[in-house]
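Memo to structure team: turn this sequence into structure tokens by end of day. - J.P.
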Amino acid sequence: MITALYVDNFKSWRIAGRIHVAPLTALFGTNSSGKTSLLQLLLMLKQTAESPDRNQVLNLGGDRSLAELGTYEEVVHNHALSEKMTLGLEWLLPAPLDVEDPANKGQLLFRGDALAFVTHLMWQTNGSTLGRTVVDRMAYSFSHAEFGMERSANNPSKYDLFVSDGEFRFHRARGRAWELSAPVKCYGFPDQVRAYYQNAGFLSDFELRLKRRCSVSTTLVRSATTLSASTSGPAQRPPTWAGAESASSTLCSPLGHRASLFRAAKAGRANHWKSALQPGSKNWD
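Reply from structure team:
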């Protein structure tokens, strides 16, 4: 289950930071205030994860995509290409994840039942009007530690691998210390990470779980859309849309600021809506 979203400089959202998500979360606002943007964020992450192009940082969609968002300039807040955009989510795992020490089999390095991913993106120009989206920093938070990649201070075209845990260190394999290339898409560690570091194999588990989480986002978005339509009459908006929304949409943000969250946290009501939104489905988690 998704427990939080991270959004900064994405469409109507200026600085939202971490937005808590409960089993049932409702956001209210006027048209074009950013409600659909949160749903599009989930769809954009899903179609990025499913894209066959490993060099495409964000899949902003096309005519046949779940969400057609245009260009990076159109999705960054106020079309400000000089600003960095932050996207991410936090969710509970269906089962605890154990990370074993490859040097000492059976010994656990980390264990947790929740995972978070946050990526910071920017527009990199080539000295003219042309440019491309690049990852400035991306990281997974797991078991009170952060694992990720960020642009090297010495060479912005290369990246450094980092970990925030004071006791754990990535161990380089013997041989020449080759530099690391850019992350895969906006969330993946390049193959060199696992080749150059002896104890970095578990990072693939984080990527896999993020892709699984993104793969069920469409179910959540379609449920939210159906619930929204049911409050105002017959459904008129299909699951695939580019941004048009009705005033009764389930999710919103007040013009780029942190949204007011109205949560039904009681287990009985949450379970009622869980069943109503997706009867008999395990995709909720």
